[in-house]
Specification:
Two copies of one chain form a homodimer. The first copy, chain A, is of the alpha+beta class. Helices cover 25% and strands 31% of the residues of chain A. The first copy, chain A, has a six-stranded antiparallel sheet. In chain A, strands 1-2 form a two-stranded antiparallel ribbon. The structure holds a DNA duplex. Chains A, B: It holds the Pfam family GntR.
DNA sequence: TAGTGGTCTAGACCACGCC
DNA sequence: GCGTGGTCTAGACCACTAC
């Protein structure tokens, strides 16, 4: 419109121009991680648009996961400090020693904790299908939220057929020293095979709440189904990994990586 | 406000109530995948708020990836039909046969295509670090977009040190029958080890454009670095996997899956 | 108390696809 | 032409936090 000292930038709608401009400033370091953005009022003046338009531009960046709003202080460039999540570290040699625990050892020097809730529940369709349960069969759900330095780090929910684990340590809401898989093995259900699925999606409101996720944070949804020698599924573990706190890393050997043609 | 036949729902702000209500209808099947939502005008009447508030509620669902807007027709419940992406399928046995190509074989019955662009470029910091390049060293970039039934399916960009692949088939913008890794191997750079990293994040505007992503679609960002026997990195492959088109699936054997304690 | 972002209203004009 | 969603304006009130 009839602006005066109004900042002129690229093409497209106003909100696109503004978000593109700010995104560029974030990319080139003009706005460094952790830096505070101008206030909505300042941006309103700077670009010569109304506050609603400025907010629309900022919403774009919020939903891209680039900035966060810390009300009523202002908007800040988001800082990422992902932890490494190693699927192969989830394979631990026997005999088990507590020092080998994947969760504890991956993050030495920080302060790991976890909450555990155990319940008997009807399985979701997703779990029932993978455990090959018949209608009416119940499962034991061990729901955990793992924390690092007091911040939620990931969700790890495991499900077992109730018939298999009734009156075992798996049903107690506390850490299992030898690991739930050893308990299953001692019951005659040693797992020799696992199928992993990894989905990438936006979190549900429930996941946002449990993991205290900022808007614009996608998640990795990792479903691991464990089978016995006989092919019986005995355990489904679902891990929810916030995209801003994880890198999933693994190593392969001896064969030629393809990915090419 | 002083509404009349206004739909009353839960707690929170109006936009939260409205988006919660619609999300529930999507979850319980009242609004099935592919179904058309009421128009903004209808929702405005139904909930007794202004159009701006209705749009704020719909924006929440769009950014959760639950609905898409098909202008100027209306909003629709999003349908997901993910393809399976198997990292282990990326290991192919030698001798290579075209029928084994991971991309082709995983999707039989559909119509795969790809575009290839090859350029000599300065590496990004990300690539330079993984290839252990010195300042000024250039790379060959092979950028591909893979399509299935005419729809973009994923991005696969590979980077090679220019010194290694000058005047080889890798520099031609066309399919390499035997695979780029075989070319590298024949040059004396057979890869025996790979390190994989998988990040989960929202796409950049460039990725949105190349993959024609709907808003609210997160991506998996897969970086694979291949090393020779001597530990020299010779190739970085970056695959961008739209969350709405992929399930990453793999299988493990012989060891006990942990994920438990 | 001042200033921040969060929410909501009321109204306007536009581009696009369909009829 | 009509109805759809996309954009933008102008103004209001609120909750929260730092001062």
């Amino acid at each position: 419109m009839g602006g005066m000292a109004v900042k002129k930038v690229g093409r497209g709608t106003y909100k696109q121009q503004i978000s593109d401009d700010l995104r560029q400033q974030i990319a080139d370091g003009t706005l460094a991680p952790g830096a505070k953005l101008p206030t909505e009022a300042q941006l309103t003046d700077e670009y010569g648009v109304t506050r609603g338009t400025v907010r629309a531009a900022l919403d774009i960046l919020v939903n891209e996961g680039l900035i966060v709003s810390k009300r009523p202080v202002g908007y800040f460039v988001r800082e990422r400090k992902p932890m490494v999540f190693r699927p192969q570290a989830e394979f631990r040699p026997r005999p088990y020693t507590p020092e080998m625990d994947a969760f504890m050892t991956e993050h030495q020097g920080r302060d790991p904790e976890q909450t555990i809730e155990v319940s008997i529940a009807e399985p979701t369709a997703e779990v029932a299908k993978r455990l090959q349960l018949k209608a009416g069969q119940l499962v034991v759900a061990r729901r955990r939220v793992r924390y690092l330095d007091g911040e939620p780090f990931n969700i790890n929910d495991s499900f077992f057929p109730l018939d298999l684990v009734r009156d075992t340590p798996i049903m107690r809401p506390e850490s299992i020293a030898e690991g739930a898989n050893e308990v299953l093995a001692s019951l005659g259900y040693r797992q020799v095979r696992a199928i992993d699925e990894l989905y990438v999606r936006m979190p549900t409101p429930d996941e946002v709440r449990r993991l205290e996720l900022a808007p614009g944070t996608p998640i990795g949804y990792h479903v691991c189904t464990g089978y016995t020698e006989e092919g019986k599924p005995v355990r489904v573990a679902i891990t929810v990994l916030p995209g801003d706190r994880h890198v999933i890393s693994y190593e392969r050997r001896r064969e030629t990586p393809a990915d090419e043609s």
